[in-house]
Design goal:
The structure holds 2 protein chains of 2 kinds. By secondary structure, chain A is mostly helical. In chain A, 63% of the residues lie in helices and 0% in strands. Chain B is an all-alpha fold. Chain B has a domain of 98 residues: Rna Polymerase Sigma Factor, Chain: A (Orthogonal Bundle). The mean pLDDT of chain B is 86. The chains are: A mainly alpha, B mainly alpha. At the A-B interface, α1, α3 and α4 of A face α2, α3, α5, α6 and α7 of B.
């Protein structure tokens, strides 16, 4: 039996006492003897550890678990509210910042076309400039029966 | 004889109630399993001062995850899985902050322990030597990676079979065997290093 084969067998099966082939090999191989001895120390050590008395749960263990469950439930809900609140605050900040930026940015620029408001104003100016003034001079007192027609200045005649 | 099925039926009822959020029923399950969980946690973590806290955390985790329990395996096995996973997480975190050193042991104790290992039927170790050996192997375990500690703890300290470990860790048998082989080999190498540096 080779050393490697023997060590693999020991590690896999962890036997109390190896078969005859192992014993024969160990008797003639000092290195494997040391290996088996170390393995024996660990085995005895594990046995001693397994025999160590285990601590008992202290009195009221279940009650404390239930209390901790209650506490963690409260913590979870508080944490959830905090997280949700934080998100609302962040969203409001982002929205406010966007609005501020929209207002603060110049209304014209190389990349910006005229805004709707600008187009509307320009149109209104155009209309006003091309039309005849509605009210010129004093209003005649006709008791409001018929709308007053604008004076026709193009005829050059006086009534 | 008929008490075991009745007990099981009772347990199923408690689990179902706990799954609906009934804390009182869960408390009854805690009463039933507290010793077992505590023992498992202590054997895997080997920290007397932290075992109870960790065991409580296991039950809290179990309550939060209890809806995922599908009654295919016994409730105890499912709870063991929760406990082992929790201990594994703890050991992984703890390892980063652990000071790693070899335990010093008196020459006489080493000689007696080796003699005992070579001839288990020979002279018995006295309580002091037993304690020294426990500390020594405990320190070797502390130095091992979390994966090795879990698999060795379940096999050598809890006394579970390869099949039971495979069921708890959700691994196949051959993977458990490979992990056990690797863990034992690493411990032997560490022991050899200790011997050489002595």
């Amino acid at each position: 039996m080779r050393c490697e084969e023997m060590r693999r067998m020991i590690l896999e099966d962890w036997p109390e006492e190896g078969p005859a082939a192992v014993r024969e090999h160990v008797a003639g191989c000092a290195e494997c003897r040391a290996y088996v001895r170390d393995f024996g120390v660990l085995r005895v050590g594990f046995r001693a550890l397994a025999a160590e008395p285990v601590p008992e749960p202290s009195w009221g263990f279940a009650t404390r678990v239930l209390r901790r469950l209650e506490e963690t439930r409260d913590e979870v809900s508080v944490e959830f509210l905090e997280r949700a609140g934080r998100r609302v605050v962040y969203a409001t900040c982002v929205l406010a910042l966007t609005l501020l930026l929209a207002l603060a940015l110049p209304s014209s620029g190389p990349l910006r076309g005229p805004t709707t408001a600008e187009l509307y104003l320009a149109q209104a100016e155009e209309v006003t400039a091309g039309s005849i003034p509605i009210f010129t001079g004093e209003l005649p007192s006709n008791n409001g029966a018929t709308p007053v027609a604008p004076q026709n200045s193009g005829t050059g005649k006086k009534p | 004889m008929g008490s075991l099925p009745a007990q099981e039926a009772q347990e199923v009822q408690w689990v179902e109630r706990a799954q609906r959020g009934d804390r009182e029923a869960f408390g009854l399950l805690v009463e039933c399993y507290q010793r077992r969980v505590m023992s498992q946690v202590f054997r895997l973590v080997r920290r007397r001062d932290e075992a109870e806290d960790l065991a409580q955390e296991v039950f809290i985790k179990a309550f939060r995850a209890i809806r995922s329990y599908n009654f295919r395996s016994p409730f105890g096995a499912w709870l063991s899985r929760v406990a082992v996973n929790h201990c594994y997480d703890y050991l992984r975190k703890e390892r980063a902050s652990r000071i790693s050193y070899h335990w010093q042991m008196a020459e006489e104790s080493v000689r007696r322990i080796e003699a005992q290992a070579e001839n288990p039927q020979g002279s018995r170790l006295d309580p002091e030597q037993q304690a020294a050996l426990r500390d020594f192997v405990g320190k070797l375990l502390d130095r091992a990676p979390a994966e090795d500690r879990v698999v060795l703890g379940l096999k050598e300290l809890e006394g579970l079979s390869v099949e039971e470990i495979a069921e708890i860790l959700k691994l196949n048998r051959s993977t458990v065997k490979v992990r056990l082989h690797r863990a034992r080999k690493r411990m032997l190498e560490d022991l050899k290093r200790w011997r050489e540096g002595r």
